[in-house]
């Protein structure tokens, strides 16, 4: 069982991340991953992926009617090879190298979005976003930006519902592959389960923010969260 200081600090980060993700559709990994990595790197990415697998269940209970099932049918098959590559990255590359590369890629994508470069939601773009999400999510526990950028022009409820379904199934893939690769043990599982109560508190606290996001502010909120995730990945890797 993690000590009380870890639970208080990491739990607060998880709670804040859950507030963000319950309103925007992503953000848990962005807020919590750097904190958990700093406090106990041995828990990453397994412990945070366990927490990330729980939050979509609550989101789906409220948003399941808005899921883009056709989009998921193309994105999820891409998640599998991306997750396999992510397991290889965890086993062979340094976290610093991976963090800088992924963060830079995310920031370039945000700049292109701001310059009105819009990627259409097609089978090819969905498969590609799913693969990138599998890679970054498995290796760093931050897998939301590729899919979020693709869906940034959709309605808020559709974004939250689709991302929640994608995260739930995709994270289960990542956890299974990490376990098969010997990179998910009892230490990570206990750490992840200990943070779940903070996750639930954050989800409940974030529900009122949905009204603000739904009032035509989803794209702005998504781009802001994705930009911060890229900056966090780069800065935490370089420090």
From TrEMBL:
It is found in: Cell membrane. One of its GO terms (cellular component) is plasma membrane. The chain crosses the membrane at residues 42-60, 72-91, 97-117, 163-183, 189-209, 221-238. It is a multi-pass membrane protein. Keywords: Cell membrane, Membrane, Transmembrane, Transmembrane helix, Transport. The keyword Transport applies. Pfam families: TauE. PANTHER family: MEMBRANE TRANSPORTER PROTEIN, TRANSMEMBRANE PROTEIN YFCA. Belongs to the 4-toluene sulfonate uptake permease (TSUP) (TC 2.A.102) family. This is Probable membrane transporter protein. It comes from Nocardiopsis mwathae.
């Amino acid at each position: 069982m993690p000590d009380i200081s870890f639970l208080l600090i990491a739990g607060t980060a998880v709670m804040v991340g859950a507030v963000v993700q319950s309103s925007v559709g992503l953000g848990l990994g962005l807020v919590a991953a750097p904190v958990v990595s700093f406090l106990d790197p041995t828990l990453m990415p397994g412990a945070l992926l366990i927490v990330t697998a729980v939050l979509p269940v609550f989101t789906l209970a409220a948003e399941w009617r808005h899921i883009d099932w056709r989009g998921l049918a193309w994105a999820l098959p891409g998640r599998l090879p991306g997750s396999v590559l992510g397991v290889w990255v965890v086993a062979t590359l340094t976290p610093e190298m991976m963090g800088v590369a992924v963060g830079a890629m995310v920031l370039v994508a945000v700049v292109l979005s701001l310059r009105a470069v819009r990627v259409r939601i097609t089978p090819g773009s969905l498969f590609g976003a799913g693969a990138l999400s599998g890679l970054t999510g498995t290796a760093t526990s931050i897998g939301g930006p590729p899919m979020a950028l693709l869906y940034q022009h959709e309605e808020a409820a559709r974004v939250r519902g689709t991302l929640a379904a994608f995260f739930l199934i995709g994270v289960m893939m990542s956890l299974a592959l990490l376990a098969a690769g010997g990179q998910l043990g009892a230490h990570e599982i206990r750490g992840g389960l200990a943070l779940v109560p903070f996750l639930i508190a954050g989800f409940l606290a974030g529900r009122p923010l949905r009204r603000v996001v739904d009032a035509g502010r989803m794209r702005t909120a998504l781009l802001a969260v994705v930009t911060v995730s890229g900056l966090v990945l780069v800065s935490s890797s370089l420090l």
